[in-house]
Design a protein that fits this description.
By secondary structure, the protein is an alpha/beta fold. It folds into 2 domains: about 1-60 and about 245-285, no CATH class; about 65-240, Glycogen Phosphorylase B (Rossmann fold). Helix content is about 40%, strand content about 15%. Strands 6-5-4-7-8-9 form a 6-stranded parallel beta sheet, sandwiched between helices. Strand 10 (about 280) and strand 11 form a beta hairpin. Helix 3 (about 75-80) crosses helix 6. The chain is elongated and about 70 Å long.
Length: about 290
């Protein structure tokens, strides 16, 4: 939208792009963007073949709240949520305002519950978010199975502190979610089949050894069993993830923004000569990629 406005008006306002995944989507790279603030060197490498000049690429990381980078005391954090100190705490982020993307995620957790008896040294914490109906249903299932090692929470404000209380986080591979986990030093199990940008996130994180991936309930159970028997595997993910952490990304992006604003605007008369083509599929407008 910003690029379109500059092309149509000819006004030389600066444009800074911050992709919030670990691979640039096809529509992001544009010759009239002044600066791309990207997650890492691998992402920068995907922009160079698309004719993005080197001086318009800045590796900053993806911004996240400073709360996720603070140092919390794990024992205090666990006490805040009434979690045991002598178990491996596994946090499952299953809540969202729009539950549709989490349908399969929640189904996998539903199928996992009957087998939690086999993981006595683990405490599973399921965050249902603002979905009260889902929270009530999971609480009933936990009670029906008689599971003492499963905790169900509703909406949580202190998510950063809860991540500190956990040893492993089960989550979808969204760019902001995995960035928060990286900043919070929380090893991840990326659950579900990933598509598009999320697939790129899975590829990057598992390739770096910073996360494990599970696409089915059986794979999730096997992954948890592996961590239960080999806790050092979670420590290994934590060490590998330290190479990807950029907890001060927001600060770096803010500095880059002010530097961009301070530059003398470049008036390019060619911008006003640009026009957009409208593509249609039948009678409906279509976007080209």
């Amino acid at each position: 939208v910003a690029v379109s406005a500059r092309m149509l008006t000819g006004l030389p306002f600066p444009i800074l792009c911050v992709p919030t995944d670990y691979e640039a989507e096809g529509l992001w790279p544009h010759l009239h963007t002044d600066l791309f603030c990207v997650a890492n060197e691998a992402m920068a490498e995907t922009l160079r073949p698309r004719r993005v000049p080197e001086d318009r690429i800045l590796i900053t990381g993806i911004p996240a709240s400073p709360a996720f980078s603070r140092d919390y005391d794990k024992a205090t954090a666990r006490a805040s949520f009434d979690l045991p100190e002598d178990k491996i705490v596994v946090l499952a982020l299953a809540g969202a305002k729009l539950p549709r993307p989490y349908v399969h995620f929640r189904e996998a957790l539903d199928e996992l519950l009957p087998f939690m008896h086999r993981l006595p040294n683990m405490q599973l914490v399921i965050v249902a978010g603002a979905d009260e109906e889902y929270e009530r249903r999971v609480r009933r299932e936990v009670a029906d199975f008689g599971l003492g090692n499963v905790t169900v929470l509703g909406y949580v404000n202190a998510m950063a502190e809860l991540m500190e209380a956990a040893d492993v986080v089960i989550c979808k591979p969204g760019g902001l979610t995995v960035t928060e986990c990286l900043c919070a030093r929380a090893p991840m199990i990326l659950l579900g089949r990933a598509y598009g940008q999320e697939k790129a996130n899975v590829r990057m994180l598992t390739g770096a050894g910073a996360a494990m991936a599970a696409t089915t309930p059986r794979e999730l159970l096997d992954t948890l069993r592996h961590i239960s028997e080999q806790p050092a595997s979670a420590d290994a993910m934590l060490i590998n993830a330290s190479l990807l952490r950029r907890p001060r990304a927001a600060e770096a992006i803010a500095k880059a923004t002010f530097s961009l604003i301070a530059k003398e605007p470049v008036h390019d008369a060619r911008l006003r000569g640009k026009h957009f083509l409208h593509f249609y599929w039948g009678r409906k407008p279509a976007h080209t990629r």
